[in-house]
Amino acid sequence: MSTPLTCRAPATGTVQIDDDKVRVTRWDFDPGAETGWHRHGMSYVVTPITDGTLLLELPGGQTATAELKAGVSYARAFGVEHNVVNAGTAPLSFVEVELKAYAG
């Protein structure tokens, strides 16, 4: 007997700023919600609004987890490819700032 196909609910991305320098998006995840597979075309900074645990699905079937702490930011370079899932039992939110242009 095969396992039925299940789909995760999508996370909600709300663009707050999108100009020639940055794109700022607030991401809200219910428990189990996901972004869907994507590749970052820009370097970015994430600032968690809530504590939580992310499941990161990576190319090649690998996975990793990340513990988020409200107010503790982290940065990643462009080219990152993944699906981001709220692995916790509570809603999770963060703000992502994509860097379109650097000073200078």
TrEMBL record:
Cited Pfam families: Cupin_2
Keywords carried by this UniProt record: Isomerase
Presence of the UniProt keyword Zinc-finger in the record: no
Gene Ontology MF annotations: isomerase activity
Gene3D superfamilies, alphabetized: Jelly Rolls
InterPro entries xref list: Cupin_2, RmlC-like_jellyroll, RmlC_Cupin_sf
Keyword Ubl conjugation: no
Domain annotation Cupin type-2: ranges: 26-97
Protein name as it appears in the record: Mannose-6-phosphate isomerase, cupin superfamily
Species of the source: Falsiroseomonas stagni DSM 19981
